[in-house]
Write a structure and sequence with these properties.
Shape: globular
Structural class: alpha/beta
Largest sheet: 5 strands, mixed
CATH class: Alpha Beta
Order of helices and strands: EEEHEHEHH
Distance between the termini: 21 Å
Number of domains: 1
CATH superfamily: YqgF/RNase H-like domain
Oligomer: single chain
Number of helices: 4
Radius of gyration: 15 Å
Helix content: 40-55%
CATH architecture: 2-Layer Sandwich
Amino acid sequence: MRYLGLDLGTRTLGISISDTTQTIASSLMTIRFQESDYQSLLEPIGKLITEYQITKIVLGLPKNMNNSIGDRAKTTLAFQTLLEETFSIPVVMQDERLSTVEATNYLLEADMSRKKRKKKVDKIAANIILQTYLDKEREELKNGRKNDI
């Protein structure tokens, strides 16, 4: 049983995966696709779900800084519905505000060139999204409650 973490952009999908104990997230890959062609992502995601026996998808929700839902978040919520209808597994939303900034900062600290950062930032952001969710879930279970947003 593993979880898949997704960071959806307009032309890229960052992907991370949990270990079997849902404790540690690891960056997996970035898929590039034609702008807004989210349907094309279903086949590669389906293969990952089967290969890694995924039981839950954690999808980053790009809320505005004032906590409102903008156009990107609406697109992401529509993608959530598409994933749930296609794969029949839970797709939970995880607030992803500043995850890309955090991922970029990690890569800057590693003194990575701009070209290399561009290739890695999405899967690192997906890793941050998934790890944040795993930590939150573990804390909620420890405290006797569990709530997905």
